[in-house]
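Supplementary notes for students who missed Thursday's class. We covered one full example, reproduced here. Read the sequence, then the structure, then the short commentary at the end.
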Amino acid sequence: MKKGILSVVLVAMTLPTMAQQVKYSVSGTSAKNGQKVYLIDRLSERPIDSVTVASDKFAFSGTAEKNALMAVRAGGSQWETPFFNDGTPVTINVNDSTLKGSALNERLTKYDLEMDAPSKVFNAKVAKLTRAEIGARQDELMAEYNKIQAHQTAMTNKIFQDESNTLIPVAFAQLYFFDNGWDAYDELVAQRVAYAGHPYLKKAKDDVEKILKPKDSPQTAFIGQQYTDLEMADANGKMHRISDLVGKGKWVLVDFWASWCGPCRAEMPNVLEAYSKYHAKGFEIVGISFDQKKEAWVKAVEQLKMPWLQISDLKGWKCAAAPVYKVEGIPDNILIDPQGKIIDRALRGKMLHKRLQKIFGE
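Structure (token representation):
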């Protein structure tokens, strides 16, 4: 049986999770009378209902699919308090985003608040700084940001491990697929985890795939084509070409990044791990920086301990690589085979390791 067909069959075996309509009862409190509160269906990303806070209270009632992932959002806030429609009434305090309901939903809320706590502290700190202060403390702030990213990644992976017999991982699926690759969806389905049939899991997988590797995009259009050579200087002013490495029996990852890019810096330990594991087997990396300031670029290379070739024209978003490879956001990369053909793009997290494992083996 083909892998794709097997996945469909295995998902179908778990579909009873969402088979029936269940009544929901959502009540809550808010300190802002007159404020709109919205009940959101996470699957469609649309409001199911909205009410106006009166006497510090609001309420929703109706029916929705059993175990549907829903959320409450107050006013123009970006924060949503998620919960599963498991038939147990839910009470939400939008002032502090706490929830009372089933044990499942209370545990979900606890995870959600714990996941976001470092970000709230960080954002509050940065909001008090001037632009000049942010610039002066860039290294410190970047280090703190990277710790937050690492905290979220570690916590998400732990949730997927500890809560494999509940629906809770579904609420954190996007974060999980960003780190582990969207193909991790097939692995979860094959493992027949309790939430494998939940429709939001597949939506999260599809959303991440569209973000990282959109079909028919200018970026993915390069896959299957021969690479285009570029020439830039290293930190010492010596000129290098991509062709210095490509076409010499090596697999080459051209990595687009910048010292000021938090996600780039957060991803770099993963790239370094891949380099350390596969370099001796024929894996090379060329880093192309979208920096403008040489000092910041060189300092980041040293801090992140990147041993591979680093080049840049120090033109920021006007970098020569941007129009050649349609680089519209970073981190980004292209993987070039020994014959100079681009075979993949936007390999991040475990996706990079899985791709290299297919090429080089364990």
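Commentary. The first strand starts at residue 21 and ends at 29. The radius of gyration is 23 Å. If anything here is unclear, bring it to office hours.
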